Amino acid sequence: RSMIWRYFVQHPIPDRIVDGKRLALKVCKVCHQEIMSTDSSTTLLNKHLRVHHQREYAEYRKLDIQATLDRTESKQMQDLADKVAAAQKLQLKGGCDVFTREKIKKLIHGTLVLDEKKDTGTSGI
Known about the structure:
three-stranded antiparallel β-sheet; elongated
């Protein structure tokens, strides 16, 4: 969900559909201007905030960037946890030797191959 909704309230309009999408009335919390657009669109909201409320727009952009970074970091942490779990699974199967600090660093930086099918007999983990 976009951080833009901190600055707007949405009121769906029953029985109003355009191009298969519901129309909604969005109201700016700062100046109470009403904006009509499709239910999920935030384009006009971004424009309104940028043009009419520069301070709030700057705050919104900062929050939006931070939320994007948080999502990216969370995904990267999940990817790393998946890689570690896969490596531990291979280790338990006897498909590789014990983890070393160097191997964990390579795993974190994405330079360690964990695909056991690519293993040519030399232990890569």
